[in-house]
Amino acid sequence: MTAKIIDGKAIALQVRENVKKEVAKRVAAGKPKPGLATVLVGERVDSSTYVRMKQKACADLGMNSFHRPLPIDATQEEVEGLVKELNADPAVNGILVQLPLPDHLDEEKVLQAIDLEKDVDGFHPINIGRLAQKGREPLFVPCTPYGTIYLLKQAGVELSGANAVVLGRSNIVGMPAALLLVKENATVTIVHSRTKNIEDVVRNADIIIAAIGMPEFVRGDWVKPGAAIIDVGINQKDDPTRKRGYRLVGDVHYDEAAEVAGHITPVPGGVGPMTIAMLMANTLRAAEIQQD
Ligand code: GUN
């Protein structure tokens, strides 16, 4: 193996420790604890797990969390009404509406209802619009892409002038990651289901961000020697040797790619822990914007 492993777990821990220290300083100075509201519509198992992890992170870092579950058949008016109530609550500095929402709800309208200063997920159309424009800065950057870029910087990977290939164009990861890389002066190509000769496009990449949700899709012989790989995928792969019958793999074939790449993130323990760490950093910043 040639690649250096980018240890997302350790880097996320550092981010969390810094946030924890800053929160303690604020509380010692008589300021209120930062507070994050989590809105979960329905009871999807994966979403419920993520929300619980976010609440636990708040507790670990000395912040308040306010969980506001709604039933799966909540109406548009009910969801937007709850967001407005949270906008008006001074104890709530950040509002996180867990996605995906049930199909009958208009996601864009819900996200648009969030106060810009409380948009710790960075999904408000104005924050995303600013991310896409030259010379403009969003108040908050979406957490997974933010964590992705943070890992590359911590690993000392040069972004300016690099050829970056992002696999996937989702609103949550692929597209904002591509926009962030452009802001960092990378030359960015987005690869998706209609792209021709994906392998050849990837072979040209100095930086590969894989976020398509397809297990071990990127093979070792697609990787340019020395490239940096951030694997955002988390997929279950059958593995009868494991007690639970499966193991987690990324969107990149790790063993093959690690032979060629310069840097690579493992799955699990790569990008995953960064998402929550960056959410905590965004929530602290929201409190600073609102209280200082
Ligand atoms: N669903 C999957 N990832 C995310 C995220 O980062 N934020 C929210 N709100 N929902 C998600």
Lay out the secondary structure.
Elements: E1 4-5, H1 8-28, E2 35-41, H2 45-60, E3 64-70, H3 76-87, E4 94-97, H4 107-113, H5 125-132, H6 143-154, E5 163-167, H7 174-183, E6 187-191, H8 198-203, E7 207-210, E8 228-231, E9 235-238, E10 246-249, H9 254-258, E11 263-264, H10 272-291
Parallel strand pairs: 1-11, 2-3, 2-4, 5-6, 5-7, 7-8, 8-11
Antiparallel strand pairs: 9-10
Helix pairs in contact: 1-10, 2-10, 6-7, 6-10
Residues 96-99, 121, 143-144, 172, 275 line the site of guanine.
Number of strand elements: 11
Secondary structural class: alpha/beta
Kindly report how far apart the N and C termini lie.
49 Å
Helix content: 40-55%
CATH architecture classification name of the largest domain: 3-Layer(aba) Sandwich
**What series of H and E elements makes up the topology?**
EHEHEHEHHHEHEHEEEEHEH
CATH topology of the largest domain: Rossmann fold
Shape: globular
Largest sheet: number of strands, sense, barrel closure: 6 strands, parallel
What is the level 1 CATH name of the largest domain?
A: Alpha Beta
Bound molecules: guanine
CATH homologous superfamily name of the largest domain? NAD(P)-binding Rossmann-like Domain
Placed side by side, the strands forming the largest sheet appear as 1-11-8-7-5-6
Average pLDDT, all residues: 98
What percentage of the residues does DSSP assign to strands (E)? Answer: 15-25%
Low-confidence stretches: none
- Tally of alpha and pi helices: 10
How many domain units? 2
Radius of gyration: 19 Å
